[in-house]
Design a protein that fits this description.
heterodimer, A: 149 residues, mainly alpha, 6 helices, elongated, B: 306 residues, Cytochrome Bc1 Complex, Chain D, domain 2, three-stranded antiparallel beta sheet, globular
Chain lengths: 149, 306
């Protein structure tokens, strides 16, 4: 009985997972949303760094966790066939050099993971983390993003 | 008939002579008296190095070592591909054998020590506005960097643009020889920013659209341009609503320091390296650049909407 419930629950979760995926089955829309969310996350920290918001260790840590999710997930949102459309700013270089692109995402994953493991206890520590994480944003945008507007 | 032929021949000779004369490289023979005995200060030169972003083109492509100026970066253009040369202090393959005067002629006249014209992919159209002291300080700093052997590959430029002498004509049109003149009506801060933007920073070289001959359309100063490398655009940075109107001076200074726009986008493309350099300037210099950019005439986008 318990087994049956587990299987059913598993199946349900699977269906839910598929449903969630198909809610936005366009990889370009998904990655654009992910970038927007990442911008908002880092924005929360930038505001603290600029002195426009109070240092808040919990908010900063949650923002970094959100960015870590993006770093892990983003590379899967550039399948073959999603090179053009929706004003994408993704550079063709991504598909020419997928390994290099993945490496850039990995750098962001590592910088955020490091900050999750040792959360900033002060604004100065947060600024240092921002510098490292921000460097990985720039590091990828330099080569793999083309500004269109 | 014979007479006509003679006349044509004469005209051809005169034409060639005029071309020869007009396109003749005219370097300075000596530094101005005031600078003759000046000894470059490498510490000050380091800041000029960052303001000028030398490493963006002259460090080896993809290298994290921004102080080894081996050259090799390709600059694509409608005229062909220009390859940045080795400007490390290696005496054979770099510029280690250059005098201060050679360096001043390169930076402000676009003329090599051998007396030929450089292509304006090397932005001497901007560097001509620099103070000679800054140029000589920069040379002193470059002399402290590691020597790198090996020449970068040659430019890939087709006829007629491969005739360097022809650049003399281009220079008549686009190289005015004017050093930076501060605006008496503007604040010291704005003038400092104007100097950095128009001189060493050479911002206009990418952010201002060019005409068919590759000269800057100065009436569209900083209004953005198609990316010369063929993909995307270089943004409008005038205080127009299509440009940076919504950005405060503080926002601009912060973007130059951190790479983050007010919308928390992270600047990329070739601006990524620019931010890497600008972050080494003083906060006052970044604020000065911001103040100047807020003061230029607001202009609509210098590129066509896609």
């Amino acid at each position: 009985m318990i087994r049956k419930v587990t299987v059913a629950a598993g199946a349900l979760m699977l269906v839910a997972g598929i449903a969630a995926a198909s809610a936005s089955d366009d990889p370009i829309a998904s990655r654009q949303a992910m970038m927007k969310n990442t911008g908002a996350s880092i924005g929360a920290i930038v505001k603290m760094a600029k002195g426009e918001a109070e240092f808040d260790a919990l908010a900063a840590s949650l923002a970094i966790r959100a960015m870590n999710n993006s770093a892990i997930g983003i590379v899967h949102l550039f399948p073959t066939g999603s090179e053009t459309g929706m004003d994408t700013e993704a550079a063709p270089k991504i598909w020419e050099d997928m390994a290099g692109f993945v490496e850039k995402a990995k750098a962001m994953e590592e910088a955020t993971a490091k900050a999750i493991a040792a959360p900033a206890a002060s604004l100065d520590e947060l600024k240092a983390q921002l510098g490292e994480i921000g460097g990985t944003c720039k590091g990828c945008h330099e080569t793999y993003r083309i500004k269109k507007s | 008939m014979k007479r006509l032929f003679r006349l044509l021949l004469l005209l051809a000779f005169v034409g060639a002579g005029v071309f020869w004369w007009l396109t003749m490289p005219r370097p300075l023979d000596a530094l101005p008296v005031a600078m003759k005995d000046y000894k470059g200060d490498p510490a000050k030169g380091e800041l000029v190095f960052y303001a000028g972003g030398c490493s963006s083109c002259h460090a080896a492509p993809g290298s994290d070592d921004k102080m080894s100026l081996a050259g090799g970066v390709r600059l694509e253009s409608p005229f062909g591909a220009f390859i940045a040369p080795n400007i490390s202090p290696d005496p054979e393959d770099g510029i280690g054998g250059w005098s201060d005067l050679d360096f001043v002629n390169a930076m402000t006249k676009g003329i090599s020590p051998g007396g030929s014209h450089f292509y304006p992919a090397f932005p001497y159209t901007s560097y001509q506005r620099m103070k000679l002291q800054d140029v000589i300080d920069l040379k002193a700093f470059l002399d402290t960097l590691p020597k790198v052997t090996g020449k970068a590959p040659g430019h890939e430029v087709g006829f007629p643009f491969n005739i360097r002498r022809g650049l003399g004509l281009w220079k008549l049109l686009y190289l005015d020889g004017e050093p930076f003149q501060p605006d008496a009506q503007a604040t010291d801060e704005i003038n400092r920013g104007a100097y950095l933007v128009r001189g060493p920073g050479h911002c206009g070289e990418c952010h201002t659209p060019r005409d068919v001959f590759g000269g800057l359309q100065t009436d569209k100063w900083l209004s953005g341009a198609p990316n010369p490398e063929g993909k995307g655009i270089i943004p409008n940075i005038t205080p127009h609503e299509q440009g940076l109107a919504a950005w405060s001076a503080k926002d601009i200074a912060y973007a130059l320091e951190s790479g983050f726009t007010p919308e928390f986008d992270s600047l990329g493309g070739s601006m990524g390296a620019v931010v890497g350099n600008m972050s080494h300037l003083s906060a006052e210099d970044r604020a000065a650049i911001a103040a100047y950019l807020k003061s230029v005439p607001p202009l609509p986008n210098g590129y066509k909407a896609k």
